[in-house]
Amino acid sequence: MSRSAIETAPLSIVDVTKVYPGDVLANDEVSLEIEPGGVFGLLGPNGAGKTTLVNQVIGQIRPTSGSIHLGEVDLTADASAARALCSYLPQQSPPIQSLRTRFAIELLARIRGVDRRQARARSEELLAALELEPWADRLGSELSGGVQRLVGFAIAAAAPGRIVVLDEPTNDVDPLRRRLLWREIRRLADGGSSVLLVTHNVLEAERAVDELAVIDGGRVLASGTPAALKEDARDSVRLVVSLEPEAEAPSVPAFGDQQSVTGRRLTVLLRERDAVHALHWARSLVEGGVAEEYELGATTLEDSYARLVGPQPDAEESRSEEEVPVS
Amino acid sequence: MTMSPAGIEAGPTNQGWSTPRVAGLGWWLRSYLLMLRWELANLRLVLPLLVIVQVALYGGGVIGLGFFYDVVPSRQALYFATGGTLMALITVGLTFVPSIVAQRRADGSHDYQWALPVPRIAMLLATLTVFVIVSAPGATIALVLAELRYDIELQISPMLLPAVVLVLVTTTSVGAAIGHVTAQPAVTSAIGNLFFIAMFLFSPINYPAERLPVWLQVAHEWLPFEHMANAMRGGLTADLGVDVGRSLVILGGWAVAAWVSMYWVLGRSR
Question: What architecture (CATH level 2) is domain A3-225?
Answer without folding.
Answer: 3-Layer(aba) Sandwich (3.40)
